[in-house]
Amino acid sequence: MEQVYEILLSNKPPLPLIIILITILIILFSTIYILKKQNKKQSNKNRASSFPLPPGPWKLPIIGNIHQLAFSSALIHRRLAELAEQYGPVMQLKLGETSNVVLSSPEAATEYLRTSDGEHWRRMRKLLAMELLSEKRVKSLRPIRDEEIGKLVKLIGGEPAGGAVNLHQLLVAVGNAMTSRTAFGKVRELESSFLPVARQILRAVGGFNIGDIFPSNRLLLIISGAERRLKKIHQEADVILQGLIDEHVSRRRRETEYSDTAEADDDEDLVDMLLAYTNYNHVEVKAIIMVRICDIFVAGGDTSPLTVEWVMSELMRNPEKMVKVQRERGKVVDEACIDELQYLKSVVKETFRLHPLAPLSVPKEGREAVVIDGYQIPTKTRVIVNYWAIARDSSHWTNPDQFIPERFLDTYIDYKGFDSHLFPFGGGRRVCPGMDYGIAVVYALLMNLLYHFDWKLPNQLKPRDLDMSEDFGVTVSRKNNLYLIPIPYHGP
C-alpha cells in the first residue's frame, strides 16, 4: 500500500496506472450521468402522475374513438376541432391500441413544441440551417427559380386568348421542375422515377394506417398490405438512390480531375452537398439523402404550388383583395425587394392561416411522462398538434373564417413557427427544414403570376360561387383543380 501511495505522489506515475485511473473516472462519471438521467425521468413521471389525465370522448372496446372520426363527414382536422370544442384544447383519444392527445390551443402547442426535441433533430437542424437550406443557399438557387418560372409565364402567355388554364397542373409541374434541378442538378431524367417514389413515401409516413393503430396485430398488418407496400417503396427508392449516388460520385470525380475545385463547387446540387456531409460524418448516406430530398420535395414540389393555388383562389373569391394586391405590382417583381410588397405578404400570411397545408403535426410518441397545460401526458402517448384549429381560434382571431389580409398589416405576426398562433410550417424546434426554400418559391410564383397577368373566372362564374372544398391527403389541397382565364398585363 505504501508503494502505491508513493507512486501516486511521484511526478511520473507509471502509464498503466494512469490508464486505470482514467478508466475508473470515465466509469464513475458515466454512472453518475445515467443515474441522474434516470432520476430525472422518474421525477418527471412522479410529477406528471399528480396531474389529471386529459378529458376526451367516450370510447368503445378495441377500436376506442375511431368511430367518432371514421363516421364523420368532416375532414379529420375539422372533426378534431369540433371534438376539442366539447372536451377542451388538451383532449385524449384512443385510436385502436394507441393513446393520443390532441392539442388545439396555442398555449398548449407552444408548451409542447418548445420541449419536444431530440439529438437527431438538433443535428439535422444545424446541418440544414448552416449548410443545405440556409438563407444564403436558398438565395443562390434563385437562377433556377427565375428560369423555371420564366418558362411558366411564357407557357401561360402563349395560351389562346379567352381560354382557361389548369393552374393546379401548371404550378405543380413548375414546382417539380425546380425541385428536380435543386436536388439532382442536371440529372433531370431521374425526375420521372424519383419524385413519384418520394410522394409515396410521404403518403406512407404522413397518413394514418392500420399498422399505426394496431401495431401488435401482425395479421391486420398483413391483410392491409401496408407492410408489403412499404417494402416495395423502400426497394424502389434504394435502387433509384444508389444510381443517383453513383452518378454524382462519378461526375464529381471527373470534375475534380479535369477542372479546378472552385468551378466544381459552383455546380454543386443538394445531393453533392449531402454526399460531402455524409462521407465526412460517417452517417447513413441513403437515409439522409432520402429524408432531405423529401423535405425539398414537400417545400417546393407540393407545398409551395398548392399554397399559391389557395392564394389565387382566395383572391378570385375576394376581388376587392385582388385589386389591392395588384396595386403593388408596379413597384417590383424581384425577390430581393419582397419587403416592399406589404399587402402581398399579408395575403400570403392570411392564406397560411386559413389553409395550412399540414393542418396536423405528425404524431410524436413521448419517451417520458410530461405535463402540458395542467394535464398528465403519460409515456408512449402520441401527441398531435391541430394547427388548423389554432389558426381558427375565435378567442385570438376576429372573424376567423373570413379572408382578411389587413389583420397582418397592423401587427407583426411571424409565420416561421415563432408566433404561437400561426404554424404553417410547424413550430418550435421541429419547424419544417425546407421553410425558407418553400417561402421563396411561393413569393417568386405569386409575384410573376400577378405582375404579368390579370385573371378571370371561367364560365361567367361569380366569385362567391367558387368552390373552396378541401381534399385531405399528404397535404390539404383544393378538392377540385383551379381553372382561371389569364389576361396578359402590359402595364398602365
Automatic annotation (TrEMBL):
MF annotations from Gene Ontology: heme binding; iron ion binding; monooxygenase activity; oxidoreductase activity, acting on paired donors, with incorporation or reduction of molecular oxygen
The entry's keywords: Heme, Iron, Membrane, Metal-binding, Monooxygenase, Oxidoreductase, Transmembrane, Transmembrane helix
Transmembrane segments: 15-35
Pfam families, per database record: p450 (PF00067)
Gene3D superfamilies: Cytochrome P450
Ligand binding (heme): C432
Cofactor: heme
Family the UniProt entry places it in: Belongs to the cytochrome P450 family.
The protein, known as: Cytochrome P450
Organism of this sequence: Linum tenue
Lineage: Eukaryota, Viridiplantae, Streptophyta, Embryophyta, Tracheophyta
